[in-house]
Target: Kynureninase
Amino acid sequence: MPSNSSPEPGFARDRFVLPRAPDGGDAVYLAGNSLGAQPRSARAALLSAVDDQWARVGVAGWEECGWWATPQRLGDRVGALVGAAPGQVVVGDSTSVQLFGALIAAARLRPDRGVLLSDAGHFPTDRYLATSVARLTGLELVTGAPPAMAPDAGTAVVAVPAVDFRTGERWDLGAITARAHEAGAVVVADLSHAAGVLPVELDALGVDLAVGCTYKYLNGGPGAPAFAYVAAHHHDALDPPLTGWTGHADPFGMTEAWTPAPGVGRLRVGTPPMLSMLALDGALEVFDGVHLAGVHAASLALGDAFLAALPPAVEVVTPREHARRGGHVAVRVRDADGMCAALARRGVVVDARPPDLLRFGFAAPYVTLDDARTAARELAALLP
Amino acid sequence: MPSNSSPEPGFARDRFVLPRAPDGGDAVYLAGNSLGAQPRSARAALLSAVDDQWARVGVAGWEECGWWATPQRLGDRVGALVGAAPGQVVVGDSTSVQLFGALIAAARLRPDRGVLLSDAGHFPTDRYLATSVARLTGLELVTGAPPAMAPDAGTAVVAVPAVDFRTGERWDLGAITARAHEAGAVVVADLSHAAGVLPVELDALGVDLAVGCTYKYLNGGPGAPAFAYVAAHHHDALDPPLTGWTGHADPFGMTEAWTPAPGVGRLRVGTPPMLSMLALDGALEVFDGVHLAGVHAASLALGDAFLAALPPAVEVVTPREHARRGGHVAVRVRDADGMCAALARRGVVVDARPPDLLRFGFAAPYVTLDDARTAARELAALLP
Model:
């Protein structure tokens, strides 16, 4: 894949296997905001991990095949896609676990403050874990909509998504971070609906900590391990709660006390699921030499084509302005689950979010303009 | 595999691909206490997950391929191997994460007590996470050797391994549990070095919570997801800290507050790494119809053959009595790392634990009596 800052929609389609439609052909697969399609390179990497590594090298693979270094090596690869210089990202565990660890570690960076301020419309796991963290740490949990958040001198942590999981609205992470920093608070961003579909620029925005998922737009496979970012200037002070042995400065010394590894390595917890990790490793090849600004432009073009082909009566929940759009477009319908199933029968795969939203995910690497228009046409055909 | 309560050592060897020795043949692979060899059925299950499921079904796989139910379905499969009736085990996350959750949930079952009593020789991650949990919950961490532990009316939780990770000594989990219960404490057992190599009988012993790893004797692959057990009578009171969305009673309702799923499902956290999960699913076929008592007898026979072939001067750290032995035998040597490497060059794969232990793992499904004797002979040849 040559360096290409303006890829066309569907620019890497031949590098994917797409789910089948009921007629046996490729589906119009617009569920990449939930589970990305399979890159052929993910399958190849996984087969190599199974046949050349685990089977034939055995336990020596932790050194000889580089498994031990994978959480940080993969972290750097993901980091390059979210604007993080090397040495600030680890991959492993689920987004929920990473978030739990990040929220507590963030709170400990501001031990003199009492409030955890979180997006009221945050993805459920973010809200549930914020509640649990508040209970464990004694913080007060306060929620609000990201644009209206007003952190003050009592705010320890501001927890926000980069893109709203329901509406697809992209928040102004730079402005939110600036406001948080003005008040002396630390930002924990959830990039699950942003990583791989738009440029995030964590370093440039000054975001403190971030987590995100790799099975959506990064196409790592079902339940692919999550990532966590911590800005380098916080590393020395970082005091995470999940003090697993792999985050130890000398993991095989097996010393009495936990001594954090230097840098972001201290965010490693237990032994990571290496087969899932290496599938992700292969999946990321799709993004080699591709700039996320171009991917986002192609994704927005897909969304525009979809919106232009929708009947005017359809209520679109997602902002139409490019600057306020993430990777998916949500429309309001009467029976979201029923409509989702009906579209699937017509070969258009999307997902539904209660109570009444249908989400159309525009993953530019494998979705084409024809796909976007077909989806709008099939939705129109199903509307009363 | 027919039901067989007395399998011979190596009874399933043809169902595995063994790591290669330097001469290109199969290694004498005695590192199954660290990373199990690869069952052919694990590879087959993984390929099916990749080609028939993720690639072709896409996001609908969560329902159509049963991914959503996998943590509990796999939990029941693992549960059957550790003496747990169905509905008490989940699979997912790493052992470290499961342990963190289990320790806090256990402490919350005894809110009026102030002490977390943990094995002083526990695997490092267990010790490090106990320290973190004590800090978060305000419990006092007290450590001691399992046989000498004396829980009292102030003890909330007793945390012990079933088998010592260094010496291979098997602790009397039944006696430890009885003493803990007499004092009114809750037991959290780590079965990492027991699951798949000896019968644990969690239900019969009355163990309260347990965690364990599936990449050792259960052969799930590098970093295969861990499991957590909670005895059914604790389910309704169980109040876990990792309140991820998949442990919600109505995960797709996406309601405001976290309402725990009924039963052990509330221990689910985030989206599990499905490719690694399904590799484990396939790996477990090795144990279909095989009784763990028989597997342990075969493992002990392997250890006996190894011990009998060792020069008498070798210091064996593991107890020789069958009742006190887990799945591996540890011997003390001058330069454990150097000896481990020298054995590997001779085609015998073991592992070293600092400062001076070599561990020989006797995974009966694929290790033969010849392997055990070869290992002793090669070790003898390297000794001064």
In short: Residues 133 and 165 of chain A are 21 Å apart (CA to CA). Chain A touches chain B through 84 residues (CB under 8 Å).
